[in-house]
Design goal:
470 residues; alpha+beta; Uridine Diphospho-n-acetylenolpyruvylglucosamine Reductase, domain 2; Uridine Diphospho-n-acetylenolpyruvylglucosamine Reductase, domain 3; 7-stranded antiparallel β-sheet; Vanillyl_alc_oxidase_C-sub2; D-lactate dehydrogenase (cytochrome) activity; FAD; oxidoreductase; FAD-bd_PCMH
């Protein structure tokens, strides 16, 4: 990341003062300007310094959002959406001040259509809450970014996660959104049909826009049937290359794996220590298969053959729910296990994504980079789609350490781009990766600026994110 891109912008003091007065009068106790509320809504899970909004609106309806956006548009004041604060690249920071709209009270499941395998939810519904609501229907929403993120935030960052290799990412699972635009009007981007060739694909435009084009007020999602049988397993490999070779063969053979996660040696060591486990401390794949009583054992056996061919150890798998939970504990605890390697140090979580045929090269070169520069950075990857994360641990009070961390992130992103990959597979651009977006897409970013100018000419929606306006 680059801290220079996270510096505060120009504040519209007169406009902010006017909007604070309007919203306080309109919403009373649901609009807060206290320091603790403002600090909470600049929270970010990376080390980008927080930039506080001037006020926080706890919206309860789309009408609340429309009223707030109209006030902000009239006075040219920034407005930033806030889900649960799992932002990793500074997306919730108020770079120019302004108003944060908190969606925690817009947490209703508006409609479930089991026969059509879809549902519509408000943006504050969390992933876990949605799946609890759906449990009795025999359906589930498969996108699992790890954190219990809000659906609005997941749509806005085009999130994915451990199930993406089987079920896709948010861009594949959002059928439509409603959004409040810069004139304070609410638009719906599509109907519930599974496919449409009617006009521009506005749904895809808003999914991944990080709140820079409008504020989402509902999201219509694809759902999946809960599998009859689920099995999980783990297998250690002698090297990153061997593990990645097994992943590539699995994908090429068409084995419908639901999850295939890669943890490097440092991460496995951390997980064993933190979660009191006894896995081999070498590159390890964690897998999950979804299917029927007949197909899951066949899938597991097919992978076991591939693992053996690639030099892997014994592939142990289970369909017992309790045993699966224990088996996956290493992956689920990976973040906190990594943090426990160096208590007191700051953590910078960053991700890149490359074609899966280049994953072994990218991860191996990244490991060598970490070792060469004396850094501490466990690696976890969604190996099935070429996406991996490095959790870099460093002293954020040391200018030297900060510089080393920033240099590492620059090298990592350049490495991914050199391999025809992307600077982010799922974290988004936010403030932290604006320079890398320019490197990745070049002149296409100017086209993005034109779209932004057309939809948000006064730059009120989440300014200072993705690219600088104008």
């Amino acid at each position: 990341m680059a801290l220079k891109d996270a510096k505060a912008g120009t504040r519209n003091e007169a406009g902010i003062a006017a909007v604070l007065g309007i919203l306080k009068q309109s919403f009373g106790e649901r609009f807060q300007t206290g320091q603790s509320f403002r600090e909470q809504h600049a929270h970010t899970t990376t080390y980008i310094p927080p930039q506080l909004p001037d006020g926080v609106l706890f919206a309860e309806s789309a009408e609340d959002v429309k009223m707030a956006v109209r006030a902000c548009a009239t006075h040219k004041v920034p407005v930033i959406g806030f889900g649960v604060g799992t932002s990793l690249e500074g997306q919730v920071n108020a770079a120019n001040g302004g108003i944060s709209i908190d969606f925690s009270r817009m947490n209703r499941v508006l409609e479930v259509n089991p026969e059509d395998l879809d549902c519509t939810v408000e943006p504050g519904v969390t992933r876990e809450a949605l799946n609890i609501h759906l449990r009795d229907t025999g359906l589930f929403f498969p996108i699992d970014p790890g954190a219990n993120a809000s659906i609005g935030g997941m749509a806005s960052t085009r999130a994915s996660g451990t199930n993406a290799v089987r079920y896709g990412t948010m861009k594949d699972n959002v059928l439509a959104v409603t959004a409040v635009t810069a004139n304070g009007e609410e638009i719906r981007t599509a109907r519930r049909a599974r496919k449409s060739s009617a006009g521009y694909d506005l749904t895809r435009l808003f999914v991944g826009a990080e709140g820079t084009l409008g504020i989402l007020t509902s999201v219509t999602l694809r759902l999946q049937a809960i599998p009859q049988k689920i099995a999980g397993g783990a297998c250690a490999f002698p090297s990153i290359k061997a593990a990645c070779d097994a992943v590539i063969m699995t994908i090429q053979m068409g084995i419908p794996v639901a999850r295939i996660e890669l943890l490097d040696t440092v991460q496995m060591r951390a997980c064993n220590a933190y979660s009191k486990l006894s896995y081999a401390e070498s590159p390890t794949l964690f897998l999950e298969f979804h299917g029927t009583d007949e197909t899951v054992p066949l899938q597991s056996a097919a992978f076991a053959e591939i693992a053996a061919e690639c030099g892997g150890g014994e592939f142990l798998w289970t369909a017992n729910a309790e045993e699966r939970t224990k088996l996956w504990k290493a992956r689920h605890d990976a973040y906190w296990a990594a943090r426990a390697l160096a208590p007191g140090l700051a953590a910078l979580s960053t991700d890149v994504c490359v074609p899966i045929s280049r994953l072994a090269d990218c991860v191996s070169e990244t490991q060598a980079d970490i070792e060469e520069h004396g850094l501490l950075g466990p690696i976890v990857g969604h190996a099935g789609d070429g996406n991996f994360h490095v959790l870099l641990l460093f002293d954020d009070k040391s200018a030297e350490d900060i510089a080393r961390a920033e240099s590492f992130v620059q090298r990592l992103n350049q490495r991914a781009l050199d391999l025809d990959g992307t600077c982010t597979g799922e974290h988004g651009i936010g403030q932290g990766k604006m320079a890398f977006l320019e490197q990745e897409l070049g002149g296409a970013v100017d086209l993005m600026r034109q779209v932004k100018q057309a939809l948000d000419p006064d730059d009120i929606f989440n300014p200072g994110k993705i690219f600088h306006h104008g």
